[in-house]
Amino acid sequence: MSRAFVKEDSGAEALPERPVSPRRNLVTRRGLALIEAEIERLREALAGASASGDRDGIARASRDLRYWTARRANAEPVDPPQDGETVTVGMAVTLEDEDGRRRTYRLVGEDEAEPKEGRIAWSAPVAQALLGKGLGDEVDLPAGTLEIVAIDPRPEPV
Questions:
Q1: Are 52 and 45 in contact (CB under 8 A)?
Q2: What pLDDT digit, counting tens, does each position of 58-89 carry?
Q3: pLDDT at 13 (0 to 100)
Q4: Domain membership flag for residue 106
Q5: What is the pTM of this model?
Q6: Final residue before a domain boundary, out of 49, 77, 105
Q7: 34-40 long-range contacts, Cβ below 8 Å, gap at least 24?
Q8: Which of 44, 77, 110 marks a domain boundary?
Q9: I want to staple 92 with a disulfide (CB 3.0 to 4.6 A). Which of 20, 78, 106, 125 is the partner?
Q10: Burial, 55: exposed, middle or buried (Cβ in 10 Å; 0-12, 13-18, 19+)?
C-alpha cells in the first residue's frame, strides 16, 4: 500500500476548547487592555508556530486565540461611577473585621481575577455580597461579618 493512503499520527493531541463563561463578560478598562494584549501575543505565537511547522504550538495558539477573541467580542467594559457611594465592578473595597484587620478587594472581570493580588471576579460569591453595598454596611462572609470602611472608585491604570 502506498504511504499516500496511510494516515500518519502528527503527534499533536487534540486540545479541548477552553470553556467560555455563560455570564456577562463585564471587564474593567485594564481587563480589556489585557485581553487585547493576549490576542496580539497569541497572533504572534501562531505566526511563529506556523513558520516553524510546530503543530502542537499551532494547536495551542489557535485554541487560545479562539477563546480570547470570543472574550473580546462579548466584553462589556465597565467604568465605575466617580461618586463611589455603592460598590460596582472596577472599584476597590476595603473591609474591616471586628479585630481591626483590613483587607481590600478590587472587583474585576472573570478573566482578570487574581485573588492573591486582591482582584476578585465580580461573579465570585464575595464580590456578589459586596455589589450594591455602601460605606459602613456590614457584609456576612465566610470569614465573618466585615464592615465596608472604604470604597475607591478610581480605576486601575491600564
A1: no
A2: 999 999 999 999 999 999 999 998 887 899 99
A3: 65
A4: yes
A5: 0.85
A6: 77
A7: 34/111, 34/112, 35/68, 35/71, 35/72, 35/75, 35/111, 36/72, 38/64, 38/68, 39/65, 39/68, 39/69, 39/72
A8: 77
A9: 106
A10: middle
Split into its structural domains, the chain has a count of 2
Task: Give the percent of the chain with pLDDT over 90.
Answer: 80
Q: Model confidence over 6-27: pLDDT tens digits?
A: 445 555 567 899 999 999 999 9
In a domain, 8, yes or no: no
Sign of CA dihedral 32, 148, 103, 123: negative
Computed on alpha carbons and rounded to an integer, the radius of gyration of the chain in Å comes to: 21
Residues of the domain holding 36: 13-77
| DSSP type of residue 84 | -
Output DSSP code: residue 86. Answer: B
Geometric angle at alpha carbon 113, from 45 and 133, rounded to 5°? 155
How far is 133 from 66, CA to CA, in rounded Å?
A: 36
Q: Quick check: is 87 in a domain?
A: no
